[in-house]
Amino acid sequence: MPLAYHAQTLGGPSVRTRPVLLVYSHPRFSSRSPLLHVFLRPASVQPLRLHLLRLVVGVLLPAVAFAGLLVFQLAGAERAAVERRVQGSARALTEAFDREMSGSIRTLQALAQSSHLERGELEAFHAECQRVLRTQPTWRSVALATPDARTLAHTAAAWGEPMPPVVERESFERAVAAGAPLVGSLARGPKSGLAFPIRVPVLHEGRVRFVLTAVVTPETLTDVASRQVDANVEWTRTLVDLHGTVAARTRDPQRYVGHPASPQFLQNTRQGREGVYAGTSLDGEPVYVAYSRASPSGWTAAVVVPRAVMEGPLRNSLLALGGLGLSLLVLSGAAAWLISRRLERSLLGAAAAAEALAQGSAPVLGRTRVLEVQRLGAALQHSARLLEQRERERDAHLQAAEAARAEAVAATQAKDAFLAMLGHELRNPLAPIVSSLEALRLRGLGGSPEHEVISRQLRHVVRMVDDLLDVARIRRGQLSLSMHKQPLELASAVAKACESAAPLVEQRHHALEVQVPAQGLRVLGDPVRLTQVVANLLVNAARYTPPGGHLRVRAEAQGDEVLLEVQDDGQGLSEELAARVFEPFVQGARGFDQSAGGLGIGLALVRSLVQAHGGRVQAQSAGPGRGSTFRVWLPRLAAGGEPAAAPAPARDETGAPRLRILVVDDNVDAASALGDLLELGGHQVRVAHDAQGALRAVEGFSPQVAILDVGLPEVDGYALARRLREHLGAAPPAFAALTGFGQGEDRRRSTAEGFQRHFVKPVRLQELEAFFRELRAAA
Questions:
Q1: Distance between CA 766 and CA 127 in Å, rounded?
Q2: Cβ-based neighbour number of residue 396 at 10 Å
């Protein structure tokens, strides 16, 4: 008995480990020893060391990923803090600019209150402006102009000389229109170079009388921005005027002051009063820019920080973390590799022990420090001890199974022989009874109630014998061999079945309703077997319906099938019984009315016969006491099928030529009864009971028909037929077999021996007369 188990094969450093299935057969039971079938799994199977490496990576990677996430979040928080600091620096620069401008505006406002200006003493006011200019080192000049931009006094020119024109007219006009102080934009004068104005309107009775302007140099703003510089020397601070011109810059002011700011800067600063964005500096360096806009001047203060300054900590942290993680992976991988080598040696020992077990040897496992491998070795040794015990048990089981199989085969053969012999032995005494009853009927003595009772019960016995033999055929799968299919209307089979079941239906006083169309339900089937199907269903319904019940037979076409239903209002079926009712010898519960019983094989024959016709069956019931419905579906024959041969009409045999008939049967009663029956039919009959008597009977008789029992003693019917052919020469009779054996092989043998008909006891006179008509028609 093969023993299958799973193991693991391992090789050296260059050999992959593969899970395998080992199938073992002991040398005593196999000519090939050892027998080792190895079924490899798919090639994707990988060595243990790789699995350990994956385990290490699987453990470390989440930790490294978590640390990376933590570092990333910390670096992000740090960068956010730096952004806040940069934004604060930009805001501080804006405040410093506003303070510087506010101081200059207050000075101009104080100058505007001069009594010389109020009295219109412009020369004296010009001198006063010169004195104030000397106190303001950040101012380049002071000018006084009318609202129409006509210069009245200018410290850049001596009194009496032509006064310079107003520069940067746009801010001048805004000051006149607003009537409030403001800071103008950076502009280049005709002689003085770059500067920007601070304008203060001088009001008289609510109207602008003059505009007082202080011209301030850009270096002043550079000093303001430089005063904001702290330890962050890499930060660049910039002031940009209302028109986007760089007015001050702590790095390379000579290069960029007076030039427009970058379009990117202008675009981002228009989106809000404050903010931080990533961009490119005027030097082309990637930077982060924090800006804050002054109010009401509209100037913008910006602090520019290289991206490397803000992103450097995050990058350095990630690089450090990556290096640490890689180092841990390398170290852990090396440790896993060393551990896998030890495990590999232990598993190699276990594989060798398993292979020894597969070859029928005792498994020997070396010392190992791996607890699981030790347990595996102990299990292999235990398996080896159990193996021999299991093999002995297997031998005993095989011997017992072989003996049981031989006994079952013998029992089956004995059962088949018994059923065949039972059929023969039951038919032999039935034959003279049937013939005698038929003879009584022909003599006019068959009309009594006693005669009808005997006929009815005799038909019941014959049916049970036929059913028993059919069950034997079902068991051997030979039922289909005895079927002769032809196209026919289902109504004809239903009519014959109703006629067959009529005595039982009348006896139990049932009302039978038949709803079957005479035409349109054509099937391909054996007329006798289909009649048997319907009759068995009707008999079953009649038996299990209390007297005075109602039975209904209906049929209809359903697409490519024909549906036949047999309904009753009898005792019904339980759910469990409905599922098993078509099994052989399964019957419903019997009450005190034992006449409702049977052998329990009628419905089993129904299912087998319907399946042999390509159909199916179903039993349905609403429950005990609520009646049953049995349905049969058969394949419907196409309309163009070959029409069924119409039965030959019964002919009046009066005046028909009579036949000379030889009857040979070792059962004296059966032979005499059949001879009397044939003589009543007007035929000339000779009766014999063995082969010698038959040969003597034909002397001077020359029979036209010989009805022979094939089971004659000493010389059987087949040998007797050969002797009669030799004896009668050119005028042999037509031979018909008469026997209690009706199996398929019995019929095939009689046909092979030259018999033209095979009659199964008990035979009816109608069957014999039909055979005789065929002989006359053939002649």
A1: 163
A2: 10
Tell me the C-alpha distance between 312 and 306, whole Å.
10
Residues 517-527: pLDDT tens digits?
A: 999 999 999 89
Task: Confirm whether 318 is domain-assigned.
Answer: no
Same domain, 31 and 161: no
Query: Residue 11's pLDDT is what?
Result: 39
CATH number where 604 lies: 3.30.565.10
Alpha-carbon gap, residue 314 to 64, rounded angstroms? 15
209 and 130 share one domain: yes
Closest CA to 677 of 699, 694, 700, 661: 661
672 with 627, same domain?
A: no
pLDDT tens profile 726-749: 988 888 899 999 988 877 788 889
* Chain centre distance of CA 589: 45
What distance in Å separates the CA atoms of residue 570 and residue 625, rounded to the nearest whole number? 6
The one-letter amino acid at 198:
I
Residue with tokens 């994956």: 54
Domain hosting 102: range is: 85-312
3-state helix, strand, coil in the chain (%, to 5): 50, 20, 30
Residue 613 and residue 490 share a domain: yes
771 with 692, same domain: the answer is yes
pTM of the model: 0.41
Asked if residue 302 and residue 272 are part of one domain, the reply reads yes
| Phi, psi dihedrals of residue 394, rounded to the nearest 5° | -65, -45
| 125-129, 266-270, 615-619, 646-650: range with lowest mean pLDDT | 646-650
Domain boundary among 253, 288, 312: 312
C-alpha–C-alpha distance, residues 443 and 52, integer Å: 104
145 and 90 in a common domain: yes
Q: Is 367 helix (H, G, I), strand (E, B) or coil?
A: coil
Assign 192 a pLDDT band (cuts: 50, 70, 90): low
Q: Is the dihedral of CA 402, 408, 411, 416 positive or negative?
A: negative
Q: How many CB atoms lie within 10 A of CB 290?
A: 25
Distance from C-alpha of 347 to C-alpha of 308, rounded to nearest angstrom: 55
Residue with tokens 């008509």: 773
In the three-class reduction of DSSP (H, G, I as helix; E, B as strand; rest coil), residue 193 is classed as strand
Closest CA to 153 of 190, 116, 207: 116
The answer to whether residue 407 is domain-embedded is no
* Residue in the structure block whose two tokens are 């841990």: 328
